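Section 5: illustrative case.
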């Protein structure tokens, strides 16, 4: 059985990167509480900047592949 860790943070917070550094990008699922009225439209840019240091596989996992696998959407 494969276990996943669900992390939560805003894209402009550093806790997300620390979390997937600790648990691994293969155990991290990004979540959203959209729409979120106190966020500006820059959150997409913040998220892109947050995952930029990751390699292609890790970036794909953090941004959705893990979710697709756990829900068998692939």
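Designed sequence:
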């Amino acid at each position: 059985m494969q276990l996943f860790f669900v992390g939560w943070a805003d894209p402009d917070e550093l806790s997300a990167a620390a979390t997937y550094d600790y648990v691994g990008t293969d155990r991290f699922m990004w979540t959203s509480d959209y729409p979120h009225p106190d966020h500006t439209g820059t959150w997409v840019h913040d998220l892109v900047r947050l995952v930029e240091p990751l390699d292609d596989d890790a970036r794909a996992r953090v941004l959705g592949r893990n979710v697709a696998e756990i829900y068998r959407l692939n």
